[in-house]
Design brief:
By secondary structure, the chain is of the alpha/beta class. The chain has two domains: 257 residues, Aldolase class I (TIM Barrel, Alpha-Beta Barrel); 89 residues, no CATH class. It contains 13 helices and 13 strands. It has an eight-stranded parallel beta sheet. Strand 4, helix 2 and strand 5 form a beta-alpha-beta unit. The longest helix has 21 residues. The protein is globular and about 55 Å long.
């Protein structure tokens, strides 16, 4: 299959691979810069991005805003001419500030999910940054396209379809996940076709091509080719990039992927009630047993979090993961994390995909 460069407005991406955003501290400037240097799109996760800043505990918002600029500049130094963006979750408190900071830093692209980014065009303003919502179904795609059309007289520059085999927080109920995974990927292929039909309708209305990236469980060339055969213009891949030399996370986090078996990959419930996919470890066993894990003072990450009621702090657990304290961590991963066998370079991963 001939793979074409990805075109997003006036941007041309030589290799149609988007490195998925992974927080906290897994995809920062080093990984994103390496992917962009190799001709893909490098994505920095804005989620608690300032966790290493000295004032993070006192003023997490200021630390995060400062780190957005720092990590972007780090990536840009690695890939002066590459395409570099941010993943910014709608569910974050201070979402508006992070969008503005990413645009001000000079990001080429903002990918936004974990909720519908209904206000993203307004927040990005006239910055020129390309905007890409994440959807997991035709209904949510229709809602966001209709709203952006009516309210802003525009359509997304790119749309990411994230399937049920993705890592981290997922845009499905636990019942939907069970159904999709029991019945195979074919069922979600049909949902992808429905989304593509909705997108084409709006693309035709605006007389422009809205490129599509398919994400979730893409870890080899065969799966990438299948995504392209469905009509994708790009694939978004995250898990494969964790076990790279350039990934920003601690080596001990990467080693949990290398050591994981298939049965270790489980669906978990995050403190804010969203299902997610992670590697079973001692920490998750404690949570499953009903233990309430003591946590630090609130760092104001997710809008819907009530610190007095949560079983554990997701910021604490994800920071522990990024720092390599894997026995006290939430180890988010994709469905095929257990297939990782060795550390690779970003170039090796990208070459293996296309």
């Amino acid at each position: 299959m001939g793979i074409k460069p990805l075109k997003i407005g006036n941007l041309t991406v030589e290799k149609p691979i988007i490195q998925g955003g992974m927080g906290v501290g897994v995809s920062l400037g080093n990984l994103a810069g390496a992917v962009a240097k190799e001709g893909g799109i490098g994505i920095i996760s804005a989620a608690q991005i300032g966790y290493r800043e000295p004032d993070f505990d006192r003023d997490p918002v200021a630390a995060n805003l400062r780190a957005i600029k720092k990590e972007y500049e780090k990536a840009r130094e690695i890939a002066p001419k590459g395409v570099i963006g941010f993943n910014i979750m709608v569910a974050l408190r201070h979402y508006e500030d992070y969008v503005q900071a990413a645009a001000d830093a000079g990001a080429d692209l903002i990918i936004s999910g974990a909720g519908l980014p209904t206000e993203l065009p307004r927040l990005a303003g006239e910055s020129g940054v390309k905007l890409a919502p994440i959807v997991s179904g035709a209904r949510s795609a229709g809602v966001i396209l209709k709203l952006w059309d009516r309210k802003y007289n525009r359509v997304p520059d790119l749309l990411v379809i994230e399937g049920p085999k993705a890592g981290g927080h997922l845009g499905f109920t636990k019942e939907q996940l069970a159904d999709y995974l029991e019945n195979g990927a074919g069922d979600f292929d049909e949902e992808i076709r429905k989304i593509l039909a909705v997108v084409k309708e709006y693309g035709d209305r605006y007389q422009k091509k809205i490129p599509i990236a398919i994400a979730g469980g893409i870890e080899n060339r065969e799966q990438a080719e299948h995504a392209f055969s469905l009509g994708a213009d790009a694939v978004q891949v995250a898990t494969r990039f964790v076990t790279t030399e350039e990934c920003d996370a601690d080596i001990r986090y990467k080693e949990t992927y290398l050591q994981a078996e298939k049965e270790d990959i489980i669906i978990v419930k995050s403190p804010v009630g969203m299902p997610g996919r992670a590697i079973r470890n001692a920490f998750m066993d404690r949570v499953d047993a009903g233990e309430k894990i003591p946590h630090s003072a609130c760092h104001g990450c997710l809008r819907s979090c009530n610190p007095a009621e949560i079983p554990y702090c997701i910021t604490d657990a994800l920071i522990n993961a990024a720092k390599g304290d894997v026995e006290h961590a939430l180890l988010f991963c994709g469905a095929y994390a257990y297939k990782a066998e060795k550390l690779e370079t970003v170039k090796e991963v990208m070459d293996s995909l296309i």
